[in-house]
Design brief:
Elements (H helix, E strand, L loop, with lengths): L6 H17 L5 H8 L11 E3 L1 H14 L9 E3 L16 E7 L4 E7 L3 E7 L3 E5 L2 E4 L5 E4 L5 E5 L5 E7 L1 H6 L5 E3 L13 H6 L19 E2 L1 H14 L8 E4 L14 E7 L8 E3 L3 E7 L1 E6 L2 E5 L4 E4 L5 E6 L4 E7 L1 H6 L5 E3 L1
Antiparallel strand pairs: 1-19, 2-3, 3-10, 4-9, 4-11, 5-8, 5-10, 6-7, 6-9, 8-12, 13-14, 14-21, 15-22, 16-19, 16-21, 17-18, 17-20
Bound molecules: 1-hydroxynaphthalene-2-carboxylic acid.
Length: 350
C-alpha cells in the first residue's frame, strides 16, 4: 500500500481539510478545546456599579420625555459592558430601573421570563398579578412569576421607581421566550388586595387550595417585615461569616427560593463590620437599601450607597464591608437556583 504520511503531501491535505470545514458548518474541536474547557469559569461580564446619583436624573428625564403610550414599560436597562449586544446585566439576569408617574398605567401582559421588583422610591403605585392588586412601598419585594398576567399603575401623587430583575437572558438562551398582551389594558381584579399575603404569607395554608408550587404564591414581601426580621436577628446573631445576617425570600409552600430561577435575599452588615471573602458560581445583583458599604470584587473596591446597583459575576471573590455609623442593608438577586438544580453550584471560602 502506498504511504503518504510524510512531508508536504500531508501538510497540503491538512490545509485542504481546514479550508473545507467552515463551508460545511464544521469545526475542529482540537483547535478550540482549551479555550472551551478552562480550568475555571472565564467571565465575559465585568464587575460593575450603577450609581443612583447618576441614574436618577436620567430616569426622571425619561419620565418627562417619553409618554407611557410609547413605552410598554419605561425602564432604563442596566447593561453590562462586558456583554455587548445583550440586554443583560449578567449572562443570565436582566436588570432595569422602572419609573411610573401619577395616573400612568403600564399595560397588562405576560411573558415566560420570571420577574421581580424591589421598590426604590415613592409610594402609591401598585402591581396587579393574577387578579390580585398590591400597593407597593419602598423596600417591598414583588414577584411576577413566569406566564402570569401583570400590570402596574400609579394611583398616588408622586413618581414611583423600582428595580426590575428578570431571568430573560437565560430564557432567551434557552429559546423559550413567549409574550402575550392581555386583551384589556388592566386585568380584571377578582381577588381581594394582598390576598396572597393573607393566604400564604403568614405561616398558614388554606387546605382546599392547590396553587402551583414551582413559584411562590406570595406576590409582595413587605419591607417592614423583612427589615424587622433582620433587625431582630441582628440583635443576637452574627450570621454568616461571608454575608452577615441574611434572610432569603422563600416560597412558603416549599421553603425554596421565591422563583424557580432566581433567589432573593436581604442582608444586614453591622456598623464597622468587614465580612470574610468568598466566591461561588452564579451571578449576583446587589441593590443598596440602607446605609453605605463597599463590595471588594477580585481586589477592586466598589463603594455603594442607597439605591446603587453592583454586579458580582460568577466565581469572583467578593467581600462585604459596611461604612459609617449605621448598618448596611443590601438586597440581592441571584441565579443560584439554576446552578443548584443542575449540580453546578460551587462555593469556596477565600
Ligand atoms: C416587564 O414586563 C416589566 O412588567 C419590566 O414591569 C421590565 C423587561 C423586559 C421584559 C419585560 C414589567 C421588563 C419586562
Amino acid at each position: 500500500m502506498a504511504t503518504n504520511h510524510s512531508g508536504l503531501k500531508n501538510a497540503d491535505e491538512r490545509r485542504q481539510l481546514f479550508q473545507a470545514l467552515p463551508g460545511k458548518n464544521l469545526g475542529a474541536l482540537w483547535e478550540v478545546y482549551s479555550n472551551a474547557l478552562t480550568p475555571e469559569p472565564v467571565k465575559r461580564e465585568i464587575p460593575s456599579v450603577w450609581r443612583w446619583q447618576e441614574l436618577r436624573p436620567l430616569l426622571y428625564d425619561a419620565a418627562r420625555l417619553v409618554p407611557p403610550e410609547e413605552a410598554e414599560r419605561r425602564v432604563l436597562m442596566l447593561l453590562n459592558p462586558g456583554l455587548p449586544g445583550l440586554n443583560a446585566v449578567t449572562p443570565t439576569l436582566y436588570a432595569g430601573m422602572q419609573i411610573i408617574l401619577p395616573g400612568e398605567v403600564a399595560r397588562s401582559h405576560r411573558h415566560t421570563p420570571n420577574a421581580i421588583r424591589f421598590i426604590v422610591e415613592g409610594e402609591g403605585a401598585f402591581t396587579a398579578v393574577n387578579g390580585e392588586k398590591t400597593v407597593m412601598k419602598p423596600g417591598d419585594f414583588v414577584t411576577t412569576p413566569t406566564w402570569v398576567f401583570h400590570d402596574h399603575g400609579n394611583e398616588g401623587s408622586e413618581a414611583v421607581v423600582w428595580l426590575d430583575g428578570l431571568d430573560m437572558p437565560l430564557t432567551t438562551a434557552l429559546s423559550a421566550i413567549f409574550y402575550e398582551r392581555h386583551r384589556e389594558r388592566q386585568q380584571p381584579l377578582d381577588r381581594p388586595n394582598d390576598a396572597s399575603i393573607a393566604r400564604y404569607g403568614r405561616g398558614f395554608r388554606p387546605t382546599w387550595m392547590t396553587p402551583p408550587v414551582h413559584y411562590s404564591p406570595v406576590i409582595n414581601y413587605r419591607y417592614e417585615e423583612a427589615r424587622g426580621t433582620l433587625a431582630h436577628l441582628a440583635e443576637t446573631e452574627a450570621g454568616s461569616p461571608f454575608d452577615g445576617v441574611m434572610i432569603e425570600y422563600i416560597n412558603p409552600l416549599t421553603g425554596g427560593p421565591a422563583l424557580p430561577t432566581m433567589d432573593a435575599h436581604l442582608q444586614w452588615i453591622q456598623p464597622g463590620q468587614q465580612l470574610k471573602p468568598h466566591r461561588h458560581t452564579g451571578s449576583t445583583l446587589y441593590l443598596g437599601v440602607e446605609g453605605r458599604g463597599v463590595i471588594e470584587i477580585d481586589g477592586q473596591e466598589f463603594p455603594w450607597e442607597e439605591h446603587d446597583v453592583v454586579v458580582v459575576p460568577s466565581w469572583c471573590t467578593h467581600r462585604h464591608q459596611s461604612i459609617g455609623p449605621s448598618p448596611a442593608i443590601l438586597f440581592s438577586l441571584t441565579d443560584s437556583p439554576v446552578l443548584k438544580a443542575f449540580s453546578l453550584y460551587r462555593e469556596e471560602a477565600q
